[in-house]
């Protein structure tokens, strides 16, 4: 039995690609919101809706994302993790080879204090082709301390 303390820490979600290959098309502010996700795991008061993880309990969370880009026409790609409308982490990968390598994966993660009701999202500034396979592209968050 975890008791009350274990229950309070069970705030987590892991969101994975829904098995498609597509370019982003839904722009929010100055970046494209990535929305091709499905819920793989969810516990506690954290929820997912239309590209956003919504935190239900204030605390410190480890937030992470990995994206797989496969675009032969790209010269670079990036993605950003947002908390509400503020970018908090950014991954950038230039493609500088004369033989374009179009299979690229980047991972980012960090710890942030997130208040109940705040939203986490993944966005990009480029219209690259992303592979939304459950093992290649995913994002999520879990509470490490209230």
TrEMBL record:
Belongs to the tumor necrosis factor family. Coiled coil: none annotated. Keywords: Cytokine, Membrane. One of its GO terms (biological process) is immune response. It holds the Pfam family TNF. It is found in: Membrane. Gene3D superfamilies: 2.60.120.40. GO terms for molecular function: cytokine activity; tumor necrosis factor receptor binding. GO terms for cellular component: extracellular space; membrane. Residues 11-144 form the THD domain. This is Ectodysplasin-A-like isoform X2.
């Amino acid at each position: 039995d975890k008791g009350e303390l274990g229950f309070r820490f069970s705030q987590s979600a892991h969101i994975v690609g829904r098995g498609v290959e597509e370019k982003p098309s839904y722009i929010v502010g100055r970046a494209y919101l990535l929305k091709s996700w499905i819920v793989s795991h969810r516990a506690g008061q954290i929820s997912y809706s239309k590209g956003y993880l919504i935190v239900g309990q204030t605390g410190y969370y480890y937030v992470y994302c990995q994206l797989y880009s496969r675009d032969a026409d790209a010269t670079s790609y990036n993605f950003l993790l947002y908390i509400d409308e503020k970018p908090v982490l950014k991954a950038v990968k230039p493609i500088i080879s004369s033989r374009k390598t179009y299979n690229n994966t980047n991972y980012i993660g960090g710890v942030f204090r997130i208040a109940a009701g705040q939203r986490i999202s993944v966005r990009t500034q480029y219209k690259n082709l992303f592979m939304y396979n459950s093992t290649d592209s995913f994002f999520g968050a879990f509470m490490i301390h209230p």
